[in-house]
Amino acid sequence: xxxxxxxxxxxxxxxxxxxxxxxxxxxxxxxxxxxxxxxxxxxxxxxxxxxxxxxxxxxxxxxxxxxxxxxxxxxxxxxxxxxxxxxxxxxxxxxxxxxxxxxxxxxxxxxxxxxxxxxxxxxxxxxxxxxxxxxxxxxxxxxxxxxxxxxxxxxxxxxxxxxxxxxxxxxxxxxxxxxxxxxxxxxxxxxxxxxxxxxxxxxxxxxxxxxxxxxxxxxxxxxxxxxxxxxxxxxxxxxxxxxxxxxxxxxxxxxxxxxxxxxxxxxxxxxxxxxxxxxxxxxxxxxxxxxxxxxxxxxxxxxxxxxxxxxxxxxxxxxxxxxxxxxxxxxxxxxxxxxxxxxxxxxxxxxxxxxxxxxxxxxxxxxxxxxxxxxxxxxxxxxxxxxxxxxxxxxxxxxxxxxxxxxxxxxxxxxxxxxxxxxxxxxxxxxxxxxxxxxxxxxxxxxxxxxxxxxxxxxxxxxxxxxxxxxxxxxxxxxxxxxxxxxxxxxxxxxxxxxxxxxxxxxxxxxxxxxxxxxxxxxxxxxxxxxxxxxxxxxxxxxxxxxxxxxxxxxxxxxxxxxxxxxxxxxxxxxxxxxxxxxxxxxxxxxxxxxxxxxxxxxxxxxxxxxxxxxxxxxxxxxxxxxxxxxxxxxxxxxxxxxxxxxxxxxxxxxxxxxxxxxxxxxxxxxxxxxxxxxxxxxxxxxxxxxxxxxxxxxxxxxxxxxxxxxxxxxxxxxxxxxxxxxxxxxxxxxxxxxxxxxxxxxxxxxxxxxxxxxxxxxxxxxxxxxxxxxxxxxxxxxxxxxxxxxxxxxxxxxxxxxxxxxxxxxxxxxxxxxxxxxxxxxxxxxxxxxxxxxxxxxxxxxxxxxxxxxxxxxxxxxxxxxxxxxxxxxxxxxxxxxxxx
Length: 886
Known about the structure:
Pfam families: Topoisom_bac (PF01131), Toprim (PF01751), Toprim_C_rpt (PF13368). The chain is of the alpha+beta class. Helices cover about 35% and strands about 20% of the residues.
């Protein structure tokens, strides 16, 4: 008897194959084998004329989805069908979440097996887990399938109904999504808060005291019987003290006068309070908490975290990584507690096994938290892992083990001191027993260093003590605007609001960035002007769809469908076809939406209008003699666009650029301008004779206010020729490039050019030949350690190409993800996520691209040959083309 086992990925297939008998054949479905059509090409001929075909869902026939097998999956399906011919039994072993259940159902529908079918589920890929799963197979859970299918249809209805509206009213290429649009709105709301924020300033005092030769610091907290103002006392919208707060607001003069008043005066301890506290360890990781902590600690994006976790799971290192549950099995509890006892000692064990309660109602994705796989946990050092896989496994291992450790015991010490009428306070913390902190400190890479950082030791003080004051200083503060969302904080907010599923957060954030709704500035997600325009439109005309409460309610309904508590069809009918359904709303609102208004972004305290144009956002203002427009520089964010910036941008357009000075060599004026990519200097004006005058971007740290004429002349003279290399005769120059200042040695066409980036202390305008030679003598650093390598690092490694065993990987490009093999690149089809791309699909995409390139090359060759033989002119060619079109 032979058995065919189908899983999603080749990696998973390879791992599972090791744990199954020889008569079991394991094949990969490469994710979903069918889906709703992603383009008009995929719509079957027999339904192309139907008005619902483009939507992919027949809303009038009980929302029947139109499932198709994409071209990229047809070979996979054939392979599976061929394999099934020789099998006596079929086991569907896809993931145990809704998506995995749906994949199994689709496989059953496509393959139409005539042999017995079993559904096998497991949450880790170990010999023991696979054996247990084989002995406990079940049937397909159709409630889970209905929940996934309903989600897929909902997402299609929202996306395909609203996105065309955005194309008509704002700009082509935009998209709306059921969860995506709510996430974008969160970013926009935070940016609005930053625009509305008004800075407040306050001063206080800090003193350094000594008691029994031990120094400590203390801070002013009261004057007389009134509290001294801190940042929390300010109204963010006014920059003033919140009405009704009875606090003392010190300015600089008052603070410095108080320093003079208190200097030399005696200090006395007025109160000492010691308060013992305990801290419990955090629960083991769920999908969202893993994404948050990996972003904080490892600076990994949600997408990268899920990609690495997927690899760790498929290779048998961790349990299933898409889960809302914090529960640990008895096996996991035993393994974790064994690790604690062996590595830290029995005193570090919690008195009894800790079991955590899952707060999320919809924690159905898997029945256990993310943890190391197996009945005994391999330490990170015992694995062959390296790089980011090792870092993420280490994080998961520590968090799991720490969850079974004893509480940390600490003592909080608060000392109040008095000097004349001023009250000061010192706070200390003593770690009496580190407990779980010995293994894991949330947000810190080094538990031992974190323990030291967390302790603030004060000298032994008692009421009546008179410590000596070494110095007092006045300290100024300014209130800060609300912090922008990072990936970690956005994921945390989405989960706390019950919006979307944690397993989808990675693709949601990627889509927000790829669609131009947000840019990453450092680790912060900054919404664009386009995000403001789209959010404004949706808030005004479709408020429910961007309401977190409404979206969270949709998620709860999907959870109820998965458990059989709600019916999927009535819900879809009400959502889309109901009296206030989406289809009705769009029909009613479309005529009411004015495109000119939709393309405008209303910003507080700004007279000028911001509009979304074909080539990006621009400013529009009336200067009295007519309407003036000017592009907004790419690096200028919505919260930073103020009236001064607007005036500067418009002034350049109407009055021309500011003249910095005159170039002593040519006598031409040097102008400062602001372009799409920021400020730059220009030599002379653009004329018919000189359409492209010499230009140079500002170096990092240089502004229009501190740029000198000498610097500008130097920038415009770049590249600077420094001399000739004494060994190879190559010309050495210094210049500014995309990645900053550099030196280059040009050894001609055959030898090529060799580059070195300048160090922080080097100046591109004054670097000497000898210093350039020093830099060029250093070993060349590959960009694997710089920004370029991050762009070159694959998002996913799909496997080896059958033709030459060379790797086939998925990369992130300027126009979205693409697959690469050798020198051939092929874009990933729109609508396909990085996680969904399979090796078979990638091979077909690459083959199609290669054949297209060949045909283009052949066509060019033929055209060139024909032209050389016939002498065809451009005019004739144009006429011929016109005839063909007619």
